[in-house]
Amino acid sequence: KQWYQRRVAITAGIERNISFVSTSDDKSLRVWDWDIPVDRKHIADPSMHAIPSVSLSASGKWLACQSMDNKITIFATQKLRLNRKKVFKGHMVAGYACQCNFSPDNSYLISGDADGRCFIWDWKTTKVYKRFKAHEGVCIGAVWLPHETSKVVTCGWDGKIKLWD
After folding, report:
1. What is the DSSP code string of 145-158?
2. Average per-residue pLDDT for the chain
3. What is the enclosing helix (H) or strand (E) of 30?
4. With bands split at pLDDT 50, 70 and 90, how would you rate the model's confidence at 25?
5. Is 82 left (phi over 0), alpha (psi -120 to 50) or beta?
6. Among 145, 141, 132, which residue's Cα sits nearest to residue 159?
7. Quick one: how far is CA 91 from the chain centroid?
8. Dist. CA 155–CA 165, nearest whole Å
């Protein structure tokens, strides 16, 4: 059976690794149990936009969803509920599947954008902590180094991978 009509993004290991979440360009979020081919929770709200990228926090408590309306929305993984107080904006990603990721200590959120910039937001305040020009063209990916948490790696459509301190 086919559940999605468009591109799908998946994050693994929520709820003590008994489930995983998938998102799609069809503006929905679904929770699945491993080895069961039926979604057990389906979230599709008229206000939602396509979610091409999802990221699980290091604590496993939060799911960051890069939304095509130029926002990162946060869901609590326990019951997959939207946290309306945690919305991260300021970047431009509409039309691009830019990754978003948590810092290893869950203090910050990071994302690239269509203009080649890298954005870092403070988790507590949801305010932009830092932004800088990382690439010529789209900055499609940004992640923290897990063993050197003061450093991030970005990649862009300019064909470059860069290490930032």
Report:
1. -SSSTT-EEEEETT
2. 87
3. strand 29-33
4. confident
5. beta
6. 141
7. 13
8. 15
